[in-house]
Design brief:
Helix content is 33%, strand content 25%. It is an alpha/beta fold. It starts with 24 loop residues before the first strand and ends with a helix.
Length: 260
Amino acid sequence: MAQKNSGSVDAVTAPAVDDSNHVGALIRLRGLTKSYEEAGTLHTVLHAIDADLRQGEFSVLLGKSGSGKSTLLNLIGGIDVPSAGEVWIKETCLTCLNERDLTLFRRDHIGFVFQFFNLIPTLTALENVSLPYELRGTDRRNNRREGERAARNLLERVGLGNRTDTYPDKLSGGEQQRVAIARALVHQPLLILADEPTGNLDEDTGKTVLNLLLELSRDAGKTLIMATHSPEVVPYADVVYHISEGKLVTEAEYQKIKQN
């Protein structure tokens, strides 16, 4: 893994190399590897992945349970640390950042949607959605005001404008996931990462949630990466990847692998 730097987020920029082949790429993965040691044996989940994911696209990561889909999302989002390789988002090397700067980068530039919602139970729907906005920068009072305005707008768009003061335990699973989607978008992140966002919902509710996530992401021009084992998502995607034997491969490459 690259050596962490003690400087600010803005100070970590790409080296002066010819990047002409990566025009439009928001995310660049270089030699990304993740291994775990268990009972004295090294298990490699992801092996030397090189990929460019373009800005504004909806990319789907398919793979069976345990294939490394969630691991890859966590590496891209800076939640987990690779065993080797680098993750670049625009001109920032996430794997070069120290822990504090990585936390700030995640806070300001990445939105997360999880399978199990991960709402804060002691906060209302409005408070859950506005929280990422409020945490930005140093002007907390102004951020709270602007965050509440943005949160109300998003809750209206996901059909929960009349549930702003409701706590998560009083919301259905589909309603909680709609709150989570609004929370992921409220601070206008560069990137939205969704890990099995419909996996804990029934089929009809899952379709509704998926359509909302896609509509709001596309309307805002955001890059969306979704990990799922559900092929029903594929028709909505701009790009489809599979994780096969630790490698990230395109749909065409995966079909070739299946034929051999």
